[in-house]
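Entry:
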Amino acid sequence: MTTSFPSTGTFPAEPTELQRGELDAVYLELRKSYRSLMVSRGLYRGKADRNRAAMQQLETKLREIATREASIRQEAYEMLEIVTNVVGELEDAGDDLVNEFGAYQMGRRTYQGGSFIGRLVKAVATFIRRWTSTKQQLEAIVEKQQTMQATLEDGIDGTTR
């Protein structure tokens, strides 16, 4: 619905030179053009308002997504830290166990194994304690993973509605 408006040259610059009939015709043409212009302006303003509302709604959704993603990212970093700690503890406990077993083997050859067996048993006990602790941490990781999965699934369902 594009309306072309008459150029300003269509309307006389000096209305005093016009006869009453011409003056009325020019006035009516101006009024018609002005009315058409105001309708177009109203349509434009309505579209602009709808677009502004849609942009605000989109901004709100993007902020919600960013907040949810930041939360998930934080949980992922926490899980990564737990995994790193678990692996480190298991490596340390395994290294201690291997070292003490090696010392016990060397001591056994020289008939001094009795002093090393106590340290080997202590290393085994430490390994078992760390193993139990890491299993508990692993359970925490599994719980966090399930929570994150549920959050992601809710987010996917929430954004497609």
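The chain has a mean pLDDT of 81.
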